[in-house]
Automatic annotation (TrEMBL):
Keywords: Signal. Residues 1-37 form the signal peptide. This is YHS domain-containing protein. It comes from the Bacteria.
Amino acid sequence: MDILMISDVFYRKFVRTGRIAWCSLLFLCAASAFAYAQERFTYTLSMCDPVSYQVSETPEKGREDLSLSWGGRVWAFANEGNREAFKHDPEVYAPLFQGCDALSLAQGYRAEGLAKIYLVYNQRLLLFQSREHRALFLTAPDILLAKAQSRARDVKCGPYQ
């Protein structure tokens, strides 16, 4: 094998490897953009209207065309009136502790609350990870709420950004 033939073989392998690397990079960029888009449009409260927890007997499903972004999250609303009410005073309607389970916080750890297991206590929305947690919270709500509030920032369930 002469030098030209060897260099030709290495050049072809380099070109193939370069194409593979380029395609891999392109794929990773596309995948991360898709993941960002998916995360960006994830609705808070499983797409339930946050205002409806306080004004209806059960939470209502929100609509995509009546959504807005607040606190680093996307919120959906059942009607224009609810969206306007939320726009004017979001802290009243958004769940306390960014939706973290209030009992878990009182016990010192973070757990996500579920949109369908909730309690409106002192005109504030609280979420829980189970019905048992909600029932236990109701045994001493004022004490547990104070404990949850004091521990919320430590486990990153503090105020919305």
